[in-house]
């Protein structure tokens, strides 16, 4: 998973934020409730080493060790087993040798956490469950279906007229199981054109219904009722028209392929079920393309705004 540069909660210390530059953590941490600056942090000044006091009992140049300090043998990795001993089960060195940066990317499980890592909370909000997402999608589909009844009704009536002859003959043969080797009558000449027009209008209605509302607030009517919202992975901000369009067309454009033996419907079904198999952010295929994540919206925010974020 590629995470865009930005300020995120440090998985090693959830009380602080650090800047992720796309490859590792840089700069000094800041409190998690503080407003991060724009862009990366300024470079840290090199610390000035303080000279150790020299006493009469310790000759100059001799390193001092506080009482009770355990001396680590040379060559032993920090936090690792002593030389000649096998590492314990599940132990791994982090960060890799020679890399001064520490900690995994934001949203990744931290290697030293025992057991199952905690679930990510993008921007301080819990991830939306699959049931809530499915309920919101069904509500939106119902609204789009009603719009199609109003706009596409006349074209659907024409299509039924074009295919009524072969459908009536097929029903008659089912009721009277007599042997008949004659082919069914052909549908009308305008059947193919009507199907294309109906699918094109249905796709445009879906786009006009969903994309503007998602661009402005991250919520369609169904998502608003279910208390969930789509937000960018890197920041709690509106999606914008471009990102909302990229998110929709992965799921919406296959509607035009329903004409091809239901291929578009199969692609949409795979996309709709994909959050069940994605970890840890439960992103659908259209979320991955637009780099968004769906979260639960706080029901009673304290100040009308969303709380500060956690790692996505």
Automatic annotation (TrEMBL):
<dbReference type="InterPro" id="IPR051791">
    <property type="entry name" value="Pra-immunoreactive"/>
</dbReference>
<feature type="transmembrane region" description="Helical">
    <location>
        <begin position="251"/>
        <end position="270"/>
    </location>
</feature>
<dbReference type="InterPro" id="IPR018929">
    <property type="entry name" value="DUF2510"/>
</dbReference>
<dbReference type="InterPro" id="IPR010432">
    <property type="entry name" value="RDD"/>
</dbReference>
<feature type="region of interest" description="Disordered">
    <location>
        <begin position="1"/>
        <end position="122"/>
    </location>
</feature>
<feature type="compositionally biased region" description="Pro residues">
    <location>
        <begin position="74"/>
        <end position="89"/>
    </location>
</feature>
<dbReference type="Pfam" id="PF10708">
    <property type="entry name" value="DUF2510"/>
</dbReference>
<keyword id="KW-0472">Membrane</keyword>
<feature type="transmembrane region" description="Helical">
    <location>
        <begin position="138"/>
        <end position="157"/>
    </location>
</feature>
<keyword id="KW-1133">Transmembrane helix</keyword>
<feature type="domain" description="DUF2510">
    <location>
        <begin position="5"/>
        <end position="37"/>
    </location>
</feature>
<feature type="domain" description="RDD">
    <location>
        <begin position="127"/>
        <end position="290"/>
    </location>
</feature>
<dbReference type="Pfam" id="PF06271">
    <property type="entry name" value="RDD"/>
</dbReference>
<protein>
    <recommendedName>
        <fullName>RDD family protein</fullName>
    </recommendedName>
</protein>
<feature type="transmembrane region" description="Helical">
    <location>
        <begin position="191"/>
        <end position="209"/>
    </location>
</feature>
<feature type="compositionally biased region" description="Pro residues">
    <location>
        <begin position="103"/>
        <end position="117"/>
    </location>
</feature>
<keyword id="KW-1003">Cell membrane</keyword>
<keyword id="KW-0812">Transmembrane</keyword>
<feature type="compositionally biased region" description="Pro residues">
    <location>
        <begin position="37"/>
        <end position="52"/>
    </location>
</feature>
């Amino acid at each position: 998973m590629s995470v865009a540069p930005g300020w995120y909660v440090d998985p090693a210390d959830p009380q602080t934020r650090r800047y992720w530059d796309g490859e590792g953590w840089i700069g000094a941490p800041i409190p998690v409730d503080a407003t991060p600056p724009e862009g990366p942090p300024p470079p840290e000044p090199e610390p000035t080493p303080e000279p150790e006091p020299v006493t009469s009992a310790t000759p100059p140049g001799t390193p001092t060790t506080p009482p009770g300090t355990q001396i680590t043998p040379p060559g032993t990795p920090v936090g690792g087993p002593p030389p000649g001993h096998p590492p314990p089960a599940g132990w791994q060195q982090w960060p890799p040798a020679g890399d001064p940066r520490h900690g995994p990317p934001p949203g990744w499980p931290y290697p030293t956490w025992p057991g199952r890592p905690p679930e990510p909370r993008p921007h301080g909000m819990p991830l939306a469950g699959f049931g809530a997402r499915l309920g919101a999608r069904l509500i939106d589909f119902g609204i789009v279906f009603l719009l199609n009844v109003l706009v596409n009704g006349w074209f659907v009536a024409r299509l039924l007229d074009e295919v009524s002859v072969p459908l009536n003959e097929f029903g008659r043969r089912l009721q009277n199981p007599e042997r008949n080797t004659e082919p069914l009558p052909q549908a009308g000449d305008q059947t193919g054109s009507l199907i294309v027009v109906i699918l094109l209008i249905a796709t445009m209605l879906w786009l006009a219904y969903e994309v503007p509302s998602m661009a402005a607030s991250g919520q369609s009517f169904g998502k608003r009722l279910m208390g969930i919202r789509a937000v960018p992975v890197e920041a709690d901000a509106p999606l914008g028209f471009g990102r909302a369009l990229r998110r929709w067309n992965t799921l919406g454009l296959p509607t035009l392929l329903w004409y091809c033996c239901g291929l578009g419907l199969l692609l949409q079904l795979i996309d709709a079920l994909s959050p069940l198999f994605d970890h840890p952010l439960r992103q659908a295929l259209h979320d991955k393309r637009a780099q968004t994540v769906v979260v639960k919206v706080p029901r009673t925010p304290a100040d009308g705004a969303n709380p500060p974020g956690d790692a996505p």
